[in-house]
Task: inverse folding
């Protein structure tokens, strides 16, 4: 199989591409939510027989977004506090005052990163405890696992980390948590909202390699390994083994030179050109057939 | 052969392969596209690696938006693409020789 030549990206664009993809996915989700809401609103205005409770619920959902948008707009004009702070404040006000609605909270959490979503969820849980409500009543049909795993980049596996941190006996939340357990979960959420070491939530961005490439052989080897492909394939395994062997230069540029020049010993019709390059014979075989 | 001349020849060959693949959409077009891809990737790798070496010998004021480390990564990524294009039976022996003078694991 020939690899798709167009799939290669310039260096440094992978992280940006990931960020753009994540942003687009997050925005698409919000956009879908808003579009559906708009359709419901249009239908509701045409439907004279719509029950009042349903209409109020619809208005309430719309207000989540309009309040947040107004707050962001005001923050943009005033310049302070930050957009994230104002958004958080608006969302907190909307979600923890009045009726507690976990179904409304869920899509909001999905659009937020952990650092914003966890404090918001903690506030929501705290509000339920302060009102003396049973958590089951506040959450409706939404489980705690879904809420904790909802923020961007999380999921059930990382939600389990939160439950463990909260001191729950198992990875799952208890079916009917006591107020003390909810408090402890809120505390764990606030605690885990900040920056965490890699062993807690897994991947973190590697520190930026120095521009001059001194001591940055690993960055080059990592780029090489990523381009070859998955480690489950024979070549990927061989590349991984090669990167783990001793004897590489410590700096980026000599490592790239070594990778580019390499050493080749075997010949295959299709890889003739590469063999020629790796064995330093390119000058004599410009036009392979 | 000077590096610049080598890159020029590789790119010329790549362009020719691409032109042939488009002009002659026969059963060999796939191989011609493959050749274009390999030659172009190879030229990119050689160019980036050479530039990385030259940049690392100069001061930071000469770098502009590209740096030695970014160029070294670009070259390595292109070499990785070339290895990914090779059959396992050819690629793995090459990898066993990297890094040179190392104890094989």
Result:
């Amino acid at each position: 199989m020939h690899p798709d030549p167009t799939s290669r990206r310039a260096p440094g664009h992978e992280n940006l591409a990931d960020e753009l993809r994540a942003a687009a996915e997050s925005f698409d989700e919000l956009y879908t939510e808003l579009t559906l809401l708009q359709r419901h609103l249009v239908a509701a205005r045409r439907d004279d027989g719509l029950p009042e409770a349903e209409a109020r619920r619809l208005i309430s959902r719309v207000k989540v977004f309009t309040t947040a948008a107004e707050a962001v707009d005001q923050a943009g004009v005033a310049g302070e506090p930050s957009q994230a702070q104002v958004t958080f404040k608006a969302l907190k006000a909307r979600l923890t005052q009045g009726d507690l609605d976990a179904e409304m909270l869920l899509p909001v959490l999905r659009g937020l990163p952990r650092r914003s979503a966890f404090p918001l969820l903690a506030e929501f849980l705290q509000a339920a405890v302060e009102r003396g409500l049973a958590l089951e009543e506040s959450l409706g049909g939404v489980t705690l696992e879904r809420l904790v795993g909802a923020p961007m980049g999380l999921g059930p596996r990382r939600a389990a980390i939160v439950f463990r941190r909260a001191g729950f006996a198992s990875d799952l939340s208890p079916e009917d948590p006591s107020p003390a357990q909810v408090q402890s979960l809120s505390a764990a959420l606030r605690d885990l909202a900040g920056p965490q070491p890699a062993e807690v939530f897994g991947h973190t961005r590697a520190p930026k390699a120095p521009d001059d490439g001194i001591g940055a052989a690993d960055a080059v080897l990592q780029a090489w390994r990523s381009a070859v492909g998955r480690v489950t394939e024979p070549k990927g395994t061989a590349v991984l083994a090669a990167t783990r062997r001793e004897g590489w230069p410590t700096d980026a540029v000599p490592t790239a030179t070594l990778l580019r020049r390499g050493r080749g010993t075997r010949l295959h019709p299709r890889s003739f050109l590469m063999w020629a390059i790796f064995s330093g014979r390119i000058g004599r075989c410009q036009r392979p057939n | 052969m000077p590096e610049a001349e080598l890159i020029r020849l590789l790119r010329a060959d790549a362009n020719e392969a691409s032109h042939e693949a488009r002009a002659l959409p026969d059963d060999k077009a796939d191989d011609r596209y493959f050749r274009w891809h390999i030659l172009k990737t190879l030229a990119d790798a050689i160019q980036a690696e050479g530039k990385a070496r030259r940049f690392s010998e100069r001061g930071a004021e000469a770098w502009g938006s590209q740096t030695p480390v970014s160029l070294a990564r670009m070259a390595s990524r292109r070499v990785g693409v070339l290895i990914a294009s090779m059959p396992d039976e050819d690629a793995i022996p090459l990898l066993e020789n990297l890094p040179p003078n190392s104890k094989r694991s």
